[in-house]
Amino acid sequence: MIQLETDVLVIGAGGAGMYAAIAAARDGCRVQLVDRSLIGRGGATVMAQMTVSVALGEQCPDHWEHHLADTLAAGRGLCDPVLAQLLCENAALRIREMDAWKVGWARENGHLKQVYAPGHDRARCVYVDFLNTGPAVSRTLRAQLNRIAAIRRIGDVLITDIVVHGGEAVGAVGLHLLTGAAVALQAKSVVVATGGLTRLYRRNSGSLNMGGDGYALALRAGAELIDMEFVQFFPIGHLAPRMIGMDPIMWDPFRYKLGGRLLNAEGEEFADRYGQAESGNYVLTRDVATYAIYKEVEAGRGSPAGGAYLSFTHVPEADLRQAFGPVIDRLAKNGIDLTRMPVEVAPIAHYHMGGVRVDASMETRVPYLFAAGEAVGGASGANRLSGNAITEAFVFGERAGTTAAARAKARAASGWDAKAAAAKALEPASRRSQAAAVPNTAALLVELQALMADYVGPFRTEEKLRLALSRLEQMQRELGPIPAGSEAYDMVCLDWLDLRNMLLVAQCVVLAAIARKESRGAHQREDFPGMLPGWDLNQILSWQDGKLSLERVPAAQAAARTP
Fold first, then answer.
1. Stronger pLDDT, 323 or 353, i.e. the higher one
2. What would the pLDDT profile of 190-245 be if each residue is shown by its tens digit?
3. Sign of the CA dihedral 245, 251, 257, 260?
């Protein structure tokens, strides 16, 4: 067994986790930053190639209150206004701090260049370039980590449980993937920064790390989850031909700036069939675009890979190069020539608005347990404003690290028996070779992703949701209580541990979606069209006596109540 002790333990090393570690360390704490993959190279931040929202006011008049108004409008009445204000008010501090760290924000006439993004009332979003914003952010944060001796970076560790002693978080236990050894991590504060749940879906824009680990860890530890029904789908995610090393959601600025045409298999533009003709402007909203593509595929007019065509063949090459020069060259290396061929696009799972319920300090209702980044729910309500994702990673990461450090410094060592706790938590894994029937975990993973895509996608019905819930419960029984597999870097055992979390989180999404009998933001019920005033409610999920429990709270009360 590997046994370690620290002041602040940060689980997850994407943008939010790295920022939390930096903030905790500069406040005088020892930090252990743990990730199941390489530090700073997993999660969603490193994959992002788009823009970051912040009210800098350098190129046009702006104020964080305008950013907040747009964030609240996008959230359709369900944003926690305290968290949303925290996000918007502190965004400029974090963006300028990253600028001082030489992230390389694009500049124009001596100012940070800001551009429009959907849902904003003015040009507000900064970027590095249209290919490298996420990679540049991750590289910059890694460089800061390397300068801080108080931060210990530990990769290839899968956290399986957060340890709670006397009702308070005291650390975590897990497995070292390369050796199969148990790991016990004692800490005075624990920060969950493991990202979202897009891996639950067959087509998604996230990494393999994004299976909802943090939601499951926090839930089993006694924290609450909020707004789990709201999964954001990006309508024109890249589908085909194969494209390596580029963001699958990169087509939005192309389409808005250059007028990309959405076509079905018969070469027809089809948006006007679904109530919003584009008339050459190509500004189809995301919900209508998603619906239109789904319905064209259902009608048998989809592209060969199951989506729609996005065509720029009518745009002169000079215009393409003027707008996106280096991107055009990267596409060419992938065998994609936009002047001669369309690409295939389809809606893909992109972001999750729900997550762990926290207060303004990022602390859950479990003392000394915090959350950061996309692991946090509530700030975005029913729909996230474009550009707010990396901003959330920065702002919530810094706040979680700072407050976790303050709480840790004021706390005495817990005195819990780390070795005994790890042995108890990992006992099923120690018995895995004795399992009589070994489930096909790889097949279950594929089935889970297909089930969520086909029955819990952007357009839902009671019938499909209840079928999904029934099958999820059956899959849980098939998975069984004991992991299959053997020892070091055992993919069967790893899949079992992932499925344990993914099935629990999937049930949270489905239960909340069944309960919300209206359409709002990213949750669209074909059997309950339209947003209803009586549903200005946040849905709170908790884990009690081995079962999920759901509570509805008026949105205003959800914000005011301490988790």
1. 353
2. 999 999 999 999 988 876 778 999 999 999 999 999 999 999 998 889 999 988 87
3. positive
The mean predicted confidence, pLDDT, of the chain is 89
The pLDDT confidence band at residue 411, using thresholds 50, 70 and 90, is confident
The total of other beta-carbon atoms located within 10 Å of residue 443's CB is: 10
For residues 239 and 284, which has the higher predicted lDDT (pLDDT)? 239
**159 alpha-carbon distance from chain centroid:** 18
Collapsing DSSP to helix, strand or coil, 323 comes out as helix
> Band of the pLDDT at 484, cuts 50, 70, 90?
low
Closest to 253 in 3D by CA, of 102, 98, 341, 123: 123
Determine phi and psi for 408, rounding to 5 degrees.
-65, -40
DSSP alpha helix (H) spans, 363-490: 388-409, 418-425, 427-430, 441-455, 462-479
Q: Give 384's DSSP letter.
A: P
Q: Which residues contact 482 (CB under 8 A, 6 or more apart)?
A: 428, 431, 432, 434, 435
Q: From CA 47, how far away is CA 206, in angstroms rounded?
A: 7
Encoded amino acid at 188, one letter: K
Residue 180 region by backbone torsions, left for phi larger than 0, else alpha for psi between -120 and 50, else beta: left
Phi, psi of 39 (to 5 degrees): -60, 125
What pTM, to 2 d.p., does this model score? 0.92
Helix orientation angle between 491-515 and 441-455, rounded to the nearest 10 degrees: 20
SS3 238: strand
| pLDDT at residue 436 tops 60 | no
CA distance 387 to 382: 15
3-state SS, residue 537: strand
Phi-psi region of 111 (alpha: psi -120 to 50; beta: other; left: phi over 0): beta
Neighbours of 459 (CB within 10 A): 18
Q: What percent of the chain has pLDDT over 90?
A: 64
**pLDDT band of 104, cuts 50, 70, 90:** very high
Q: Are 118 and 286 in contact (CB under 8 A)?
A: yes
Please calculate the CA angle 478-483-487 and round it to the nearest 5 degrees. 150
Angle at 285 between CA 279 and CA 287, to 5 degrees: 130
**Proportion of the chain above pLDDT 70, given as a percent:** 91
Top-confidence residue, 326 or 224: 224
What residues contact 145, with CB distance under 8 A and at least 6 apart? 18, 21, 22, 33, 39, 40, 151, 153
Cβ 51 vs Cβ 387: under 8 Å: yes
Inter-residue contact 134 to 248 (CB < 8 Å): no
Tokens found for residue 502: 């993914």
